[in-house]
Write a structure and sequence with these properties.
The protein is α+β, with helices and mostly antiparallel strands. 17% of the residues lie in helices and 28% in strands. The strands form two sheets. Strands 1, 2, 9, 10, 11 and 12 form a six-stranded mixed beta sheet that branches. Strands 3, 4, 5, 6, 7 and 8 form a six-stranded antiparallel beta sheet that branches. Strand 11 (288-296) and strand 12 form a beta hairpin.
Length: 321
């Protein structure tokens, strides 16, 4: 069996009148929202936190009171005066973000925001010694399944705040790098900080980058080939419709950007059709699929898989939403 994988660039959904083969917008709107996670704030310098720790903190829904334990020193400058407003207006942080060079293999999707990402498939956080998107990109490149990263500056407390003994300690400045297993967007920059007792955590110079390199190949399939849109195939030379349907995989902590799921959908459909063949034993075989990220209002929702019984060229990648 000949199989081909086609992968377009990040696909943004624009709600339109549904057409045969095109995106089922009603089904996407009716599906559960993607699971969005924000990284934790109390991370030691140079350590990589797991997604589980961030989710556990969010599910608790309570603020933990600290014990005034000294926190690891930050590597960024402390604002003068030492206030949240002075931190947010520090021109050094804006210059770091605006002058940062985009690493090879990535595209800039957000620059100099005052918020970090709350997105799907959180993969961890590392405190860096400098504002260095290249080091953050290197961490993403080494992490299996990483599709994006967020580099930002954060105002953190120098002591673990306690409401009685140290409610508002002096600040320190951390350079933070978070990794994500799905493409991200500026619309997901909703994490503006928090209050820890009387200390205010705030964020500046937040840049986000999506990986643009193609994912690894998949057994039984050739490709991938990157496209500018989704496939919108006509009927074949015999006047037959080769479109076999779609599957929408919603993003969550257990579900990232993984085109191999589309390959499994394609093969599973062939197996189902074989078991339910016509009286003469014929059935449709899936030999081609199109995998892409579908977004609504700028927020990635999930992986959309369209499957076909015929291979179609990039010339038919004309579905832009």
């Amino acid at each position: 069996m000949r199989c081909v994988l086609f992968l377009p660039t990040l696909f943004t959904l624009a709600v339109a009148v549904p057409k045969p083969q095109l995106i089922d917008t009603q089904a996407v709107e009716a599906a559960p929202d993607p699971v969005l996670v924000a990284p934790p704030y109390d991370v030691s310098s140079g350590t990589l936190t797991t997604a589980g720790s961030a989710i556990a903190l969010q599910r608790q829904g309570i603020k933990r009171d600290g014990d005034c334990t000294p926190q690891p020193a930050g590597f960024g400058p402390v604002a003068t005066p030492d206030t949240p407003n002075a931190f947010l207006s520090n021109p050094d942080f804006s210059a770091m973000a605006n002058n940062a060079t985009t690493p090879d293999g990535y595209t800039l999707v957000m620059q100099n925001a005052a918020a970090s990402l709350s997105a799907s498939k959180y993969m961890g956080l590392t405190n860096l010694r400098s504002y260095d998107p290249f080091e953050c990109a290197s961490l993403c490149n080494k992490a299996l399944g990483c599709q994006a990263f967020n580099m930002y500056v954060e105002r953190d407390p120098s002591l673990d705040p306690n409401k009685t003994n140290c409610p508002n300690p002096p600040s320190l400045t951390n350079y933070k790098c978070t990794l994500w297993g799905v493409p991200v967007s500026a619309a997901e920059a909703k994490n503006k900080g928090q209050w820890r007792d009387s200390f205010q955590v705030v964020i500046a110079g937040s840049n986000a980058y999506n990986k643009v390199s193609a994912p690894p190949g998949i057994a039984c399939f050739t490709g991938p080939v990157q496209l500018g849109g989704a496939i919108n195939a006509p009927k074949n030379a015999q006047g037959q419709d080769t479109y076999m349907g779609y599957k929408h995989h919603i993003f969550s902590q257990s579900q990232g950007f993984d085109p191999s799921l589309c390959a499994a959908d394609c093969l599973a459909q062939t197996a189902y059709d074989r078991r339910h063949s016509t009286a003469d034993g014929s059935y449709q075989s899936c030999v081609f699929f199109n995998a892409y990220v579908i977004s609504m209002n700028g927020v990635p929702q999930g992986l959309y898989c369209s499957i076909y019984s015929q291979v179609w060229s990039p010339a038919y990648a004309t579905n832009y939403g």
